[in-house]
């Protein structure tokens, strides 16, 4: 993954970054509230040595700069802590005194500062005074050679003891800034790690890259689609309906030289919305005046009849085994030029039935009866039914659900189609997340009332008008009459080899 991919992953999982920052700020706030304020008191010593002349002063200065570094450790030593605890009744033991004292020396100077940190402001000041009173005689005793009354060094207090009136901790501003920065870094890191571990497809660019086929449409996620899967009535003006109309336009022009008259709609796994996509695609094609035949070839879990509100009854299976006529099985739907062939009875051998010569002959005969045939098939990775149907169609449309299907599954589905030389027309990203800017643009521009009469079946404009059907981008063709489904009794004749039926 390059930088662009990392940024895209972080943008998609912005909530992870926000949640991490909020947790970090919450922890910082909790610790700040629970923390006990601490105060500091300080005292500064100036270290000198007796000198005679400039040469002695220079050598003495170098000596003291080296010597004063050892006084830092002496200020925090056990010996000084014991002297302070014994000489000054402040209620602290030697270990408690030692834990409160720190020291530092200013660079290239002979100034030594002792800092006392305590939760009690007054006790910190008294402890600083006790340290100043005990440290000077301690240094003089240590530095004075045996038998000599004059120590070679001398310490003087030049600043303090004084206490800082403001607590040094907690510091809410610094704490919250640091916590926010840490939360931001952790959030970005978690987002990137989650993105690298998440192999599901979330955007159309990734889907196009995995399938190496055109991205024909991105159908946005619609909460109401669970209860109203079809784009009819109020749903006909939704963003989902507009995305399906774009899919209709892109699908009709995906290959002008070899247009697809029979399209198999499939997916890698179940639950990706292929059946609803097939139904809605048939609806929008019929909306534009095309004569459409929708076939439910998912003979294991048929859904088309349920979505369209039609009785199951006889259907494709009954026609293929010769128990029903095609005229009896095909039913019109709505007031559009849309006919539906349900799945019918669920057979024990769906793959063999769909791969039979009877299925091939049926599709060949139906090509002249409709402008476009949409076939809903079974998922490609679950069973072989989808591949069997796709190889007999003019092309397949692969539907992928955003955030559910993995790259591996999509790649395997693509490979399943290419292994039998089935033509993959393109892919559709279903339940995609639409940027707020795009959703706002559609809501601001969409038609909220009836502005034009929809073109219904049998009333398609003539090619001589030389214009596209309004709002579809589809060029009109001359009328071909009412749909006349052939009453052909097709008998099941399984074949050993899958062959593609030319138009």
UniProtKB/TrEMBL annotation:
GO function term, MF aspect, one: identical protein binding
Location of the Polysaccharide chain length determinant N-terminal domain: 1-85
Membrane-spanning parts: 12-33
Entry's localization field: Cell membrane
GO cellular component: plasma membrane
Catalytic class of the enzyme: transferase
Entry membrane topology: Multi-pass membrane protein
Spans annotated as Disordered: 451-482
Keywords, in A-Z order: ATP-binding, Cell membrane, Kinase, Membrane, Nucleotide-binding, Transferase, Transmembrane, Transmembrane helix, Tyrosine-protein kinase
Reaction catalysis annotation: L-tyrosyl-[protein] + ATP = O-phospho-L-tyrosyl-[protein] + ADP + H(+)
EC number(s) recorded for this UniProt protein: 2.7.10.2
Compositionally biased tracts (Polar residues): 451-469
Main location: membrane
Family: Belongs to the CpsC/CapA family.
Name listed for the protein in its UniProt record: non-specific protein-tyrosine kinase
Organism: Micromonospora polyrhachis
